Structure formats: C-alpha cells, structure tokens
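Lab notebook, bench 4. Still working through the backlog of constructs that have no structural model yet. Next entry is a single chain of 179 residues. Request: give me the structure tokens for it.
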Amino acid sequence: MAVAPLFIADMDALKSSLRLSGIPTGADAETLVDDATLQARAAFVRRLGQARINAIVAYPSVEAPATDEENLRMIANLTESMLARLHLMSTMPVLFMDSADQDEQAWNEEGLFRTKSPFDLSTEKKALQDQIDENMTYLADEEELGSDPKLKIQTFEPATPPPQPGDSVWGSSPRRSAD
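Model written out:
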C-alpha cells in the first residue's frame, strides 16, 4: 500500500522536510515514516473533517504564498510535517534501540533527531504540539489569519481597597476607612 501525504506534494518531499530522505527503500524507518504520515492524516480528519480538508487541498501550493488561500495551504503543509515529526519522536528512537551494536551509525544516518538530545525531546514535543494546535485552529477556520491568539488584554481592579500602612498593627481606624 502506497502512503501519500495529504497536503505535501509527495512522500519524497515529506521525507526531505523531516531530514530522512536517505532512508533506503524497504527499511524499517520507511515503515515508521508511512505510519507517521497516516497518523498525520488521521489528526487532520479528526480535527478538520473531510470537507475542510478537500477545500484546503484545492488551494494552490506555491513557494511564495501571497493570498489567504495560499497561506492556508502553506500552513497545512507545515502542520503535516510537524505532525509526522511529532509521531516519529516517539517511534523512531525505538528503531535505534533495536540495532544495539550499531546505535552510533543509525543515529548519524537518521537525520531527524541528530541535533536533539533525549533530554530535549519532551520540551520539543510540547512546543511542537502547541504549534500544531495553533495551526489547526487556523486551518479549521476558527480564527482569522493575521490575528494573534496569544495577545489578550484585560484590566483587573481590586475588589476591596488596599490596606493602609499600619492597619495590620493598629487595625482599621474610622479616619483611614474614610480616606
């Protein structure tokens, strides 16, 4: 069964964006990338639905997006790569453990995690998931492009007036409460 990405042009482009283009055909790593691609597809279907996916797929994919539709397609491409990367962060290291005597060689050949230490993966996963969630909000048309959901301004007023100096020692005097 040939697995194809939803938004990214083809599997070679996805592998390239994951820095896994050197995987030999038929290798276990290729199966893991196929599984990650299916996981990404399932995440899009669950969050966006098939009708919204079809609408975004119909938008042109260009190198330098200029319209809202082209930007949505670009965000979909990036999000698909992020979803695959997130899935591979959990499954790909298992491949390295399976080849115990060739760990260093496998680590050097598989480019996806080459610059990450195992201790940074949980932080990286959290940051990646946050970005994916934000992108999915845009793709689901729940928020307009160009708006920043992180910027919220609210003013808080104290419910009671703040205590005056000395109130904790002498108590509140009628003169102080009248001020």
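Notes after review: The mean pLDDT is 79. Residues 64 and 171 are 68 Å apart (CA to CA). Flag for follow-up if needed.
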